[in-house]
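Example record for the data management plan.
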Amino acid sequence: MPTISELFVYPIKSCAGIALNEARLLATGLEHDRYWMAVDSNGEMLTQRAHPRMALIKVEIGAHELVIRAPGMSELRTPLDAAQLGEPVKVATRVWRDAAYGLDTGEACAAWFSAFLGLPVRLLRFDPERERTVDQAYTQSVGGATTCFADGFPLLVIGQASLDDLNTRLNAKGRRPFRSTGSARTSC
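Corresponding structural encoding:
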């Protein structure tokens, strides 16, 4: 019988993840997973691929706020509940080729992320009044699957045997293996 050995959420797309013992599964995936995304001044998503410092941004899910920390920065907080943002600016954006919609979390978040990443940045909260449907080419049998700012699917799963095989091949090439535990794991 399959078992889940590790469970992670990545509240801010492309920032450090949080290891969990349990999580609520919603139609869009695990609760709080990729509900936020950093974008540049053109509304384009930022990822670790181009901005590796994003891996240093750590988050914690508080009772009512997302707590954000990074080296050399003061702590930042933004509401978990999108309704607590007041009347935020609605922003059309993209996750790769897919249209997505976010709510601007405000000037304090923009200033914090801009200072840490060294470029103009806005932090978006996924707009819960909008829906982002998963590409039907991949979900024909299920249809209608939705997600927030994840690359493409509500859940991403890897089997331990696949991870072990990847690490064996990386070791054979003299490369560092992927860790199978720890909250420092990141994902874009």
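Summary line stored alongside the record: Residues 170 and 183 are 21 Å apart (CA to CA).
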